[in-house]
């Protein structure tokens, strides 16, 4: 399924994420910050009878960035965005880091990091610094560290 149309001054196809919402006299953009519960907020708005201009399945990109994760400078390409109110959800930076990093670590078959305490997080950061130094000096990262 494709969305074909003009959004502001830019022609778009395949828009999937529901960022622009409206209901009665309310008209706003939800600016999603990854790892802050954005998909929950989106579903909450839709379940409360807010409408959205975009309702297509699949991931969609604009200038190689997923629509839901566009930065302010790219969102300003769209007239509708410039004219609407905006809101976002923020999160404690440490818990956001732990959440994002834990997901990345869940795919790592070599290390079993548990980022459940401040000490574990600091140990992980120290480890990553060592890995970075090894990369900079050109050592093989497949060897035992």
| Helix segment tally | 5
Percent range for β-strand residues: 15-25%
Q: Major β-sheet, in short?
A: 4 strands, mixed
What is the CA–CA distance across the termini? Answer: 49 Å
The strands making up the biggest β-sheet line up spatially as: 5-3-4-8
- Helical percent range? 25-40%
Tertiary shape: elongated
Number of strands: 8
Radius of gyration over all CA atoms, rounded? 20 Å
Work out the oligomeric state of the chains in this entry. single chain
Number of domains: 2
**Which structural class should the secondary elements be placed in?**
alpha+beta
What pattern of helices and strands is seen along the backbone? Answer: EEEEHEEEHHEHH
Low-confidence stretches: 1-18
Task: Name the average pLDDT.
Answer: 75
Explain the overall architecture:
There is one protein chain. This protein is an alpha+beta fold and 145 residues long. It has 2 domains: 84 residues, no CATH class; 45 residues, no CATH class. It is built from 5 helices and 8 strands, in the order ββββαβββααβαα. The strands form 3 sheets. Strands 5-3-4-8 form a 4-stranded mixed β-sheet. The protein has a two-stranded antiparallel ribbon with strand order 1-2. The radius of gyration is 20 Å and the shape is elongated. The N terminus is likely disordered.
